[in-house]
Amino acid sequence: MTLERLKTDILILGSGGAGLFAALHAHRANPGLDVTVASKGLLGKCGCTRMVQGGYNVALNPGDSVKRHFMDTIEGGKWLPHQELAWTLVCTAVERVRELENEIGCFFDRNPDGTLHGKAFAGQTFDRTVHKGDLTGIEIINRLMEQVWARPIRRLEEHRAVALVPAKDGAVAGALMIDIRTGEFRFIVAQAVLLATGGGPTMYRYHTPSGDKSMDGLAMALRAGLALRDMEMVQFHPTGLLAGADTRMTGTVLEEGLRGTGGHLLNGAMRRFMGDYDEKLERATRDVVSRAIYAEMRAGRTTPHGGVYIKMSHLGPGTVAKQFKGMVDRCRDCGFDLAGGLVEVVPTAHYFMGGVVCRTDTATEWPGLFVAGEDASGMHGANRLGGNGVANSTVFGGIAGDVMPHWIAANPGHRMPDEDVLDAELGRALHPFTRKPGNLNRLREHLLDTMWDEVGVVRDQAGLERGIAALDAIEAELLTTGLADDGRAFNMTWHDWLNLRSLTEISRVIALAARKRENSRGAHFRSDFPEPGDLATSRFTVTRQTASGLELTEQPVEFTHVKPGETLLQDQAAAE
């Protein structure tokens, strides 16, 4: 097979907030470097940053502080976050939001005095979520996209990364990609590579991420032997739109600002139930609210489609329609009146706290490979605060863009790939063309049900064992299942097959890590181990693929800034 080879200095895999910020910063740091952004879809039109509704957490206003934001992040993450990463996040967010406004050109909502408006989000002790109505992601990604277009940054659109390829000396050599339009393979040789493909737990029956998300980045990192952290930590957003089985709108998130503003959750009997589960009511953290809704569902106190209701009308339909125009319009399109009536919701897989182990400068253990956005792990621990996601992507994307040119200056030169690995990855991607056609949709439906039922909001040993066995069977059948069309150009069934393999591989890691963690922290809840365990001896899980299979270990959390039982807010603690 003829393999086209292209050369660039910096290859950025992903065109969300992390990838585009990295491209802009890298070009600014060294305009002489060739920077290439590769995207599975169209630049700025795919991925999850564009879908962000809620906003951007940043400590700007009097009464708030980066220390307070940090403590909310650590406590929300149940003392599992990597504290240096979390500290970098909250400090740099202040710088980054000014950059978004003054250099990127974003317009955010403001208070009457001209300061940036911060709305209430659950799990936070201050209203610090900066936003553009309830369409914040569109504002950020559109402006980033315009800035990238205005610079000599190369774009490879509709190019799917299928493998990270090492050089003989152990550094990264580049990435193997498929041009979706033609079906041809390309190997992109790069001095530095940023993994910023986004997470996207779309292996669950109800999920929020865009349809192009299939955990490709983490699947590639796993095969490359990189260490993955916190892989059991899948965040379920409490309020995914439940519009029935016949629409892909089901699972779409209805943002946290609804509950933060004063929305009520009602079960099928029209009873407001959150008081049975947490004193913070609807403003409890996402994991708590998701489990409460799930408990109501399991008890049979459900709406016609099997979820619960969110009610906003008591706040005034006009007020709701003005503050949450995007969601009101979306619900109306699905036949629901968010402003004046009731909308059915269900917990929906939303964000992946797990990912590649990295340092605060986004470097990984693999020389030349950097990671940012949802592909990275550690900054959120067991639970991500709403509004910390897009802050995470832009903060660490910018850091990666600053760091990579300096790394190249100290480690110059393109490296020749390990041809054996390259050949093996080509064969892996072409595998379905060597098998007889089968029913991919049935396998995907099986995966969706398995992960929702056995590795979902509430877990236990028996369910996890069933889930692992089912995942093994799904993968075994997938590997015997081929394609009816042997053409590779725009063969979306081929890409469905590749999606399903990535999702199944990462699903197994999630299930195994969930079985390994015999306590309940944040997004991970074991009904057979409901206690959180000793916070002072907190440990995080690490998964690595070795020649003998998946290796799971636990490592102690380093409390570099604050220990359980302590706070950085000494003055506030003394006053209380």
Verbal overview:
This protein has 576 residues and is an alpha+beta fold. The chain has helices at residues 17-29, 66-76, 83-104, 136-149, 216-223, 257-261, 286-298, 317-323, 325-333, 388-410, 419-430, 440-454, 461-478, 492-516, 570-575, and strands at 4-13, 35-38, 56-57, 118-119, 129-130, 154-156, 159-166, 172-179, 185-195, 228-229, 234-241, 264-266, 308-311, 342-352, 355-356, 369-371, 539-546, 549-556. The chain contains 15 helices and 18 strands. Strands 1, 2, 6, 7, 8, 9 and 16 form a seven-stranded mixed sheet that branches.
- Based on secondary structure, the structural category is alpha+beta
Mean pLDDT reading: 95
Low-confidence stretches: none
Strand content: 15-25%
Q: What is the overall number of helices?
A: 15
Distance between the termini: 70 Å
Can you give the helix content as a percent range? Answer: 25-40%
The shape, in one word, is: globular
Q: Tell me about the biggest sheet? A: 7 strands, mixed
Oligomer: single chain
Strand tally, please?
18
Whole-angstrom Rg? 23 Å
Write the layout of secondary structure elements.
Layout: E1 4-13, H1 17-29, E2 35-38, E3 56-57, H2 66-76, H3 83-104, E4 118-119, E5 129-130, H4 136-149, E6 154-156, E7 159-166, E8 172-179, E9 185-195, H5 216-223, E10 228-229, E11 234-241, H6 257-261, E12 264-266, H7 286-298, E13 308-311, H8 317-323, H9 325-333, E14 342-352, E15 355-356, E16 369-371, H10 388-410, H11 419-430, H12 440-454, H13 461-478, H14 492-516, E17 539-546, E18 549-556, H15 570-575
Parallel strand pairs: 1-2, 1-9, 2-6, 9-16
Antiparallel strand pairs: 3-5, 4-5, 7-8, 8-9, 10-15, 10-17, 11-14, 12-13, 13-14, 17-18
Helix pairs in contact: 1-4, 1-10, 2-3, 3-10, 5-14, 12-13, 12-14, 13-14
